[in-house]
Predict the structure.
Amino acid sequence: MKSSENLTVGDGIIKFQLKYRDLLSDQGLCISVMSLDGSREIEILRFDCFDQQPHYHYGPENKNERLMLDKTTAGDSLEWALQQMRERLPEMVERAGYSEISSKINLSSMSSTFDMLELNARKVARNERKTVMHDRGTTIIEAGSIRFGVEFRELKNDRGIAIHVMGDIGDDEVEFLTFDCFENAPHYHYGPLAKNERLYLDTTTVPDPLVWALDLFKGGKLSSMLYRAGYKDHADNLNPVVFSEKLEELELVALDMQSSNS
């Protein structure tokens, strides 16, 4: 299969271009509906099937009307987009401002094109998904339903303490959250092995990212972050007494490790 950088499906009046985009804080497959306006190829519609903020555009090259998708009501954004194209493509193209092109679309003749589009879209969305595999840490602190892994990371252009929040699912250890408390580009991950939503910290407002992370834990934010990462059971099973005791140990280990590498 071609790279999503140049994967095009269809050879009629309408073509579909597939590209996987990683925005660090979001990621997903983008499907552009393309056609010719005279001799120029134009983007008529675009479906940005992102994990966090899925949306779609009418007429990206003219009015660029953007509408957000509600994941609760629409469900999986890629499946939603594929269904709309099969059932409502002419109407959507017309709303985008291209009524002449819309009048030439015959959905019944595009069945095989839609089949190929769905096959390739699902492959690209699955195969090009960005995940992160971290080490589990050099010091492991058991804290009931979760455990912390702490390490000092030396990268080519950055360094600092990393705190991995992990737990067991069946027989496998899974990384739920990671806090990379780096000197230059501190950030944290929701579900590194799943959706891997990566968010960066502003070092002006957060001058010490390690203290910021520890304060989050002390303030009771870990449970809600586990929920957001998709690990509800582990959040619900946090024992406040055990967690409080282990948090003190985590703070001592992390601050000592940071001091030793300063």
User: Anything to note?
Assistant: Residues 7-127 form one domain. The chain has a mean pLDDT of 91. The chain has eight helices and twelve strands.
